[in-house]
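The instructor's notes for this session suggest beginning with a concrete chain rather than abstract definitions. Hand out the sequence below and ask the class to guess, before any prediction is shown, which regions might be ordered.
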Amino acid sequence: MVTWYFGSVWDPVKYVGRIAPNPLFIQNGKMDTLMVDVCARALQKAAKNPEIKWYEGDHLGTTRDLDMPLVMQVLDDALMFIKKVDERQARDVGKPKGNE
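After discussion, reveal the predicted structure:
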Protein backbone atom coordinates (compact mmCIF):
# COMPACT_ATOMS: atom_id res chain seq x y z
CA MET A 1 0.00 0.00 0.00
CA VAL A 2 1.41 3.36 -1.04
CA THR A 3 -0.55 5.42 1.48
CA TRP A 4 2.38 5.23 3.93
CA TYR A 5 3.16 8.87 3.23
CA PHE A 6 -0.07 10.06 4.84
CA GLY A 7 1.00 11.47 8.17
CA SER A 8 4.62 11.83 6.99
CA VAL A 9 6.49 14.92 5.86
CA TRP A 10 5.37 14.09 2.30
CA ASP A 11 1.69 13.95 3.25
CA PRO A 12 -0.25 15.58 0.39
CA VAL A 13 -2.94 16.68 2.86
CA LYS A 14 -0.41 19.23 4.19
CA TYR A 15 0.07 20.78 0.75
CA VAL A 16 -3.09 20.34 -1.32
CA GLY A 17 -4.65 23.54 0.05
CA ARG A 18 -1.87 25.53 -1.59
CA ILE A 19 -3.29 24.70 -5.01
CA ALA A 20 -6.17 27.11 -4.37
CA PRO A 21 -7.39 29.29 -5.95
CA ASN A 22 -6.47 27.16 -8.97
CA PRO A 23 -9.07 24.58 -10.01
CA LEU A 24 -8.57 21.03 -8.75
CA PHE A 25 -10.25 17.83 -9.92
CA ILE A 26 -9.88 14.77 -7.69
CA GLN A 27 -10.81 11.34 -9.05
CA ASN A 28 -11.04 8.33 -6.72
CA GLY A 29 -12.07 4.70 -6.94
CA LYS A 30 -14.61 3.48 -4.39
CA MET A 31 -12.59 0.27 -3.89
CA ASP A 32 -9.16 1.82 -4.40
CA THR A 33 -6.37 -0.22 -2.79
CA LEU A 34 -3.68 2.37 -3.57
CA MET A 35 -5.44 5.50 -2.30
CA VAL A 36 -7.77 4.07 0.32
CA ASP A 37 -11.05 5.79 1.16
CA VAL A 38 -9.92 7.43 4.40
CA CYS A 39 -6.86 8.96 2.69
CA ALA A 40 -8.86 10.10 -0.32
CA ARG A 41 -11.43 11.79 1.89
CA ALA A 42 -8.71 13.48 3.99
CA LEU A 43 -7.16 14.87 0.81
CA GLN A 44 -10.54 16.06 -0.47
CA LYS A 45 -11.30 17.74 2.85
CA ALA A 46 -7.94 19.54 2.92
CA ALA A 47 -8.34 20.81 -0.64
CA LYS A 48 -10.15 24.07 -1.08
CA ASN A 49 -13.29 23.59 -3.21
CA PRO A 50 -12.14 20.69 -5.37
CA GLU A 51 -14.39 19.06 -7.89
CA ILE A 52 -14.63 15.39 -6.85
CA LYS A 53 -15.63 12.33 -8.82
CA TRP A 54 -15.90 8.80 -7.41
CA TYR A 55 -15.80 5.73 -9.65
CA GLU A 56 -16.65 2.09 -9.11
CA GLY A 57 -13.57 -0.08 -8.80
CA ASP A 58 -9.91 0.01 -7.87
CA HIS A 59 -7.13 2.44 -8.73
CA LEU A 60 -6.60 2.35 -12.49
CA GLY A 61 -3.51 0.37 -13.43
CA THR A 62 -3.24 -1.68 -10.23
CA THR A 63 -4.29 -4.82 -12.07
CA ARG A 64 -3.38 -6.20 -15.48
CA ASP A 65 -7.03 -6.30 -16.57
CA LEU A 66 -8.08 -2.71 -17.16
CA ASP A 67 -11.76 -1.95 -17.40
CA MET A 68 -11.47 0.02 -20.65
CA PRO A 69 -14.95 1.61 -20.46
CA LEU A 70 -14.04 2.89 -16.97
CA VAL A 71 -10.62 4.09 -18.19
CA MET A 72 -12.33 6.01 -20.98
CA GLN A 73 -14.85 7.52 -18.53
CA VAL A 74 -12.05 8.65 -16.18
CA LEU A 75 -10.16 10.22 -19.09
CA ASP A 76 -13.30 11.82 -20.53
CA ASP A 77 -14.18 13.32 -17.13
CA ALA A 78 -10.66 14.73 -16.74
CA LEU A 79 -10.76 16.24 -20.22
CA MET A 80 -14.19 17.75 -19.60
CA PHE A 81 -12.88 19.34 -16.39
CA ILE A 82 -9.88 20.80 -18.24
CA LYS A 83 -12.14 22.10 -21.00
CA LYS A 84 -14.50 23.70 -18.46
CA VAL A 85 -11.58 25.39 -16.69
CA ASP A 86 -10.11 26.61 -19.98
CA GLU A 87 -13.46 28.07 -21.06
CA ARG A 88 -13.94 29.80 -17.70
CA GLN A 89 -10.43 31.26 -17.82
CA ALA A 90 -10.93 32.44 -21.40
CA ARG A 91 -14.10 34.30 -20.34
CA ASP A 92 -12.27 35.87 -17.41
CA VAL A 93 -9.36 37.27 -19.45
CA GLY A 94 -9.32 41.03 -19.06
CA LYS A 95 -11.77 41.10 -16.15
CA PRO A 96 -10.52 42.99 -13.08
CA LYS A 97 -9.52 40.81 -10.15
CA GLY A 98 -10.25 41.68 -6.54
CA ASN A 99 -9.67 45.33 -5.60
CA GLU A 100 -7.52 46.25 -8.59
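Then share the key points. Helices lie at 37-46, 68-92. Residues 3-92 form one domain.
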